[in-house]
Amino acid sequence: MEGISVTRQWRVGRVFVLRHAGMPFDWLETFTADADLLAVAQDVLNCEAALLDAIGGQAANSVRSAVRRGSGDRLPGLTNPRARAAAEEWTAATRRFELAYAAADAAAGDQLREVLCRPEVGEAVFLSNPDAYRNMLVPFLSHEGALNSRWRRVRRQMYTYVQRFCAKNETVSFFGPMAYGTAGETTRLHRQRPRIRRVFLSE
Fold it and tell me: Which residue has the higher pLDDT, 155 or 175?
């Protein structure tokens, strides 16, 4: 059987589907860490680097282990005055970060609740997963007091729904295709250009 030569000719259609997230991305930006929290975190890293630089020898490994755990009260005894001073600064910086992070986490949780209270968000969660609406969203919005491990897990799950609604552009699920458009007469398909691979991170 003789070989068959196949040639493909591609043309760009004039009608296209416009994909974008169904809810405003601005809602997600309210959960980000502010400049003050980032500055406190950077201070911890600077103090950590100064501490590890001040110690030496075998003590470095045990100090690194305590630093990774964020355990200032578990630092080994340091005889070097410079290392002791650096350890005190690192411990104080760590405590400041813990307080700042707790405040920022509480504020982000309150902002998440405000977004989850929006009728359109509740509708999207219900139509996407009725069980998540009944067993997670509604109880979470009515919960009062501190969050234990169970409620923190529920909060993370609800955040992923908001992230999906505000940042994922998909043509299926709750929203479907957002809109349609028509290209102009000069639209062309260029195949000679180098390909670019884009990677997006998600939680």
Answer: 155
